[in-house]
Task: structure prediction
Amino acid sequence: MQQNLDYQQLKTQIKIWALELGFQQAGISDIDLSEAGEYLNDWLKKQYHADMEYMARHGEKRYQPAQLLPNTLSIISVRLDYMPDGLTPYKMLIQQPSKAAISRYALGRDYHKVIRNKLKKLAQKINHEIGEFGYRVFTDSAPVMEKAIAEKAGLGWIGKHSNLLNSKAGSYFFLGEIYTDLPLEPDQKQSFHCGTCTQCIQDCPTDAIVAPFQVDARRCISYLTIENKGPIPVKFRQAMGNRIYGCDDCQMVCPWNKFTQHSQEQDFQPRHNLDDTELLALFQWTEQEFLEKTLGSPVRRIGYTAWQRNLAVGLGNSKPTQATLTALKNKLETADKLVAEHIEWAISQLKLKQLKSISG
Ligand code: SF4
Result:
């Protein structure tokens, strides 16, 4: 690294390069995450992390960046919009029980690779300009408190739903970080603009936002359909509706998302019409089809068993048709224990609805 470097100028340059690489914004945070650490410990103490043991395992590393990368002095935080243009609106999907509602961030290519590639290029640009320096890039892949860092870097504020919100772009964006030993001057933290609004808390289908900034993962459809490897608790199955991979409801109702900026990234365009597909069509994918069609997609990480589990719940919440009942019964013959239990639940729900329609 050069001596007598103009770090102010370098910081300006880093932000320009980030924009040139396709990020919508970059900012700088210092490494004091003690406030976020207190929040994390309180959240863990309340068991809101469900069985995500990794959240507790790397405790201090999350809020003490130098434990993750020694000599870290500052953090470059970036954001990348992901909402593709021209999608069937999520609100319409959740009102059509035969359709599959998939969280909008997961429709295209796995964002980890997209952001990591861009972050590496940004680090290479800095390296080219100033010579060797210490750094490590992160994209939701290590114990990093990315929302707290982004908030400190001036990219937005943490809303009551616990996502980051930006006053010019809403919340449909990914975050990434470069931990570095460069002494860059931190940006101003953005102020809080939720005001008295509580829309996300009121409209969460499973009441998972138990208090402002407090999401209980044990109730959250995103956790239940993605991280959770076991059964979906029966008490949440009806509320899940047709949300078979994640849930965007708290973002959908947020007034700040009227400022959503559409992504220009081809990689985030939906694959296999995942933005507007019938549950039944997805349920009939074989394991081989699932593996082929989700190659390079975030959806793949849940595996075929959880995929079928989620779809079975979605079908149980759809309208009873002969085609659906036949598909469920056929799959029952080969399904493993976990999926079979969800299929049986779905069949019982559909039969109940049939009975009600006859008697009512
Ligand atoms: S819905 Fe309202 S309370 Fe929730 S994050 Fe958006 S502005 Fe904040």
Observations:
- The longest helix spans residues 337-359.
- The first strand starts at residue 25 and ends at 29.
